[in-house]
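pasting for ref. prot 1 ->
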Amino acid sequence: MNLSVLILFIVFIIFFAFALILFYVAQSMNKKGLSYLYIAFFLKAIHVLPPVLASFDLNINYSVYINTAIKVSLLPLYYLYLVKLGQQNKSIRLIELWHFAPMAIELILGLAIAPNHAHEVIGRINFNDNSYMKLSIENNFYFNVLSISGKSFALVQCVVYSYLIYYNLYRKYRFKLKQQITNIGSNNLHWIKVAAFLFMAECLLVGLHLFGIYVNQYLYALTYMYLLFFGFYFFIHSILQPDLSFIDDEIDAKNTPKPSKEPDYPHRNREALEKFIHQFVQEKLYLQPELTLAGVAEAFNIPRYKITEMIKMSEYTNFYDLVNQHRVEHSIRLLETLPANHSLDSVGIASGFKSRSSFYRVFKNQVGKTPSSYISVPNSHLKN
């Protein structure tokens, strides 16, 4: 096994491990948006595998069917993960399927070429050097068709997604934060801006790939070191990143027009507020991890703008302040009654938090200390 194949083997192991860990995190913490990332990591592991298998004299004709299609599906998956951070519905929508048009084209090409020419394509590739990283290989027409089309698509994707991540996502999220409708800090968005620059760096690397510069073994190693950094960066921040989907609820509530002829009766609003909060607490809606302003409005048959107006008359800053305060109070009751060795993560989930990071962050904001610090001082109290 030469150096380049060894590097690919290491990349395969790491990305496969990333995929398994994120799959576990997504299932255990109910972070549905992570599905885009663990699928991307799993596909990347499959994408780098053929040269490794070839070094053991295994048949890799299957790669002619799928490898180029996999290559052009990765950046759309990374991008859609970032998009879904700001959406309540994490499922892919029909209008978003255009992101996978290059993948569909490459699948069609693979299906057209592979049945009759897969053996020819693979047989003319020398896996003992890095020549398979070239844009084209002499006397290997069908390989060249797949290679040129796939790498050209990848270059266009890098440019497009770099722009979309920075201008459509990062700037949009930052604008929402400036409206002071959430307690999430700008540091939670900084990495999304960095992701845009990582995609720009990917543009350069794909450009080098188009000219076959990866044939140099040292550049090849450096490129895959960058690839590992790219994957590791997304892997770490995807676990730490809080969900941003609630922001749209707050903005929608602000922008929903209020009926102009509706009279304003303060005493009625106060009564409505007390009734709303009583019912909200009695039904323990705050324990639902996926709770949204829209969902509560539908459940109570009250317009969203009405709920927002009522909450403004209370001691709560906004709807999610109401939700989080009751979640923290519930978690405190659990911490004070459960055994000392009980899992803090399970307390957070039982209190309605989606993840350990959001539980700790909100708890510390409300109480002034982390849950683990709180249980060491039983007489702690909520901050006023």
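and prot 2 ->
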Amino acid sequence: PKLTVLAPKSGDVWSRKQTIRWSGTDPDKDMLLYDVYYSGDEGASWTRLNRIVKEAPAGTPENGPAGNAGAPTAKAPATAPPAGGKGGAAKAPTAAMSPPPANASNSTAPGAPKRQEPSMKETSFAWDTTEVPDGRYLVKIVASDRLSNPADPAGVEEIIGPILISNTPPKLALQGDPTVDEAGCVHLAGTATAGVPLAGVDYRIDAEEWASAEAEDGIFDSETERFRVKTSALDAGEHAIEIRAVDAAGNHVVEKRKVTVP
């Protein structure tokens, strides 16, 4: 088989839910099955992503009814014969039947064996990256034609990475309160930090359009960046200024300050 990974690409920065995509072909036109793995230790160990562990439902032949496996079914005692052989004589009371197990038809037996879902036929998988810690990861796709050739299957795998996963928003540390110069421009400085490179720092006044802050070193491309803000001249009165830091994964944080222009 031939396998091509379309996403992610090595060096990508991902957050939240992302889609792993690939394409696979077989020279004999055999149906291919796929498995998706990730590694957070540079390939020393792998965790299968397309696994859905389910408990076997109660009432299956291997489990029996929930809460009543192997128990014999109680029978009502036989009715006593009429006393004295005459009709109308009193009969012995019938014992109550044992009630059926609760939810026997659709419950899941505690401790029932678990099974793992089979490999995929689809060529994409939605990965919720919030289920793993932030960090560097490898992604591996494995393709096999074992469905068509169970006795002598052929397979291929592709490893992509590392990619960066970050679901933690950046942090902002503002240097004191905003100041106002003689022209009515507001000045503010601070430092932004993130677990992945920063994509930018923006600001806006009174919930209007966002404008870019200035990186002290000229470009936002590191995990720690110092920045400066200088607004245009503002009208006299109180204003709200918001500072927003965004990282390469799309995570962001916003800080708000009030400033009064005399």
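The CA atoms of residues 80 and 92 lie 6 Å apart.
Confidence is low (pLDDT under 50) at residues 53-115.
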